Amino acid sequence: MEYDGDPSISARNPRPLVERISRELASGEGVRVGFTDELERFFDLLEQTIMTGDTAWLDPILYDW
């Protein structure tokens, strides 16, 4: 997937990116919903990691994956 310069996609608002990735990578609606949930969880934890400087915030999702 190539970045097309969409200004609605930013580090502060990853939702358009999450939805776009889910549409392009997940084949069925059921798979897409689960995939979207995991990506949203990842971005939430990534935000916590950036805000606190503590990479341990990512540990739970990395262990699950």
Question: Could you explain how this protein is built, in words?
Answer:
- The protein is mostly helical.
- The protein has one domain.
- It is built from three helices and no strands.
- Helix 1 runs antiparallel to helix 2.
- The longest helix is centred in the middle third of the chain and has 24 residues.
- The radius of gyration is 13 Å and the shape is flat.
The shape, in one word, is: flat
The biggest beta sheet is recorded as:
none
Spatial gap, N to C terminus: 22 Å
How much is the radius of gyration in Å? Answer: 13 Å
Q: How many domain regions? A: 1
**Residue share in helices?**
55-70%
Helix-strand pattern: HHH
Tally of extended strands? 0
Residue-averaged pLDDT, rounded? 77
Task: Report the sheet-strand fraction.
Answer: under 5%
Oligomer: single chain
Number of helices: 3
Helix/strand class = mainly alpha
Unreliable parts: none
Give the SSE map:
Layout: H1 15-25, H2 29-52, H3 59-64
Question: TL;DR?
Answer:
The protein is mostly helical and 65 residues long.
Q: Can you tag this structure with a few keywords?
A:
single chain; 0% strand; mainly alpha; 65 residues
